[in-house]
Specification:
Elements (H helix, E strand, L loop, with lengths): L7 H11 L3 H34 L2 H5 L21 H7 L16 E2 L10 H10 L8 E3 L8 E2 L7 H11 L4 H8 L8 H7 L13 H10 L2 E2 L5 E2 L2 H9 L3 H14 L1 E2 L2 H7 L5
Antiparallel strand pairs: 1-6, 2-3, 4-5
Helix pairs in contact: 2-5, 2-9, 5-7, 5-9, 6-7, 10-11
């Protein structure tokens, strides 16, 4: 990485710089904070499963291997007494963001990741992933009309956010969180088949951190009024775009577990669908 990895203060400046109104900032920034918190909770859970795998006896791991030889989730469920210090030893303190995060026991299921996930990078990516939505408003809060997104332009928000971040000196690895989070991974084939107004390319996560943010994003919607989305509700939404889309979402739930949105919905006074 040769360009800027923004601090949390700089992230807020980037939001304020592009936001067309305070109302737009409150909507988009709040969503990004929520997604960042959920993403870090998911990453923390994944890292805990990874740590547990490292400390389990070999024979315990052998008890729950499927036909493909991969350790399943049931043998790797963390007991509540798993020492936080053990995880700290594997995840450097500078990679752990200090702000309110839903407890990882709000997540059920999940499988061991291929490697430890950078929680700080996940938090930064979550805070910036939707920054391009400021540029796809039909009514942006400055025209005496309620906020409203442009349906035709909305699909471009990821790419627009990516371009905005690069224009402002943000490193490619960070800007990609904006580009690669739409749906459950937007492929070149999807773009061409659906005739989407995007340059034909793959807009899919290229690492675990981006994938975690993409998953977390599905649990909160900026629709007006904003709301939380349960895993079951998003499964139904994913199915509208085809069985392959639904299957991909279910695979992500299998890997990352199911996040219980109800406590955060109460905290933010939003409904759950």
């Amino acid at each position: 990485m040769g360009r800027m990895v923004p601090t949390f203060e700089q992230i807020d400046e980037l939001h304020h710089k592009i936001a067309p109104s305070e109302a737009a900032y409150n909507l988009v920034h709040t969503h990004c904070v929520i997604v960042s918190r959920i993403a870090r909770a998911i990453a923390h859970r994944q890292n805990a499963l990874f740590m547990r795998r490292c400390t389990l006896p070999k024979d315990a791991l052998e008890l729950d291997r499927g036909d493909d030889g991969r350790a399943g989730a049931s043998a790797l469920t963390l007991p509540p007494e798993t020492p936080e210090a053990a995880l700290d030893a594997l995840v450097p303190s500078e990679s752990r963001l200090e702000f309110a995060v839903p407890p990882s026991d709000g997540i059920t299921g999940g499988r061991v990741p291929a490697r430890l996930i950078d929680e700080r990078l996940v938090a930064i990516g979550g805070l910036l992933h939707d920054i391009g939505t400021y540029r796809v408003f039909k009514h942006d809060g400055n025209d005496d009309e309620p906020l409203k997104f442009s349906g035709k332009k909305y699909i471009k928000h990821g790419l627009l956010g990516y371009e905005y971040l690069l224009e402002n000196g943000v490193d490619e690895s960070i800007a990609q969180f904006a580009r690669n989070h739409t749906g459950v991974g937007l492929t070149r084939e999807d773009v061409e088949r659906q005739g989407l107004p995007l340059p034909p390319a793959d807009y899919v996560p290229v690492n675990l951190e981006q994938e975690v943010v993409m998953v977390a994003d599905k649990y909160n919607s900026k629709s007006l009024p904003p709301k939380f989305v349960s895993a079951e509700a998003y499964t139904r939404r994913a199915a509208k775009f085809g069985e392959e889309n639904r299957r991909r979402w279910l695979e992500l739930l299998d890997q990352y577990g199911v996040f219980d949105v109800r406590p955060m919905a109460a905290e933010y006074h939003m409904i759950v669908i």
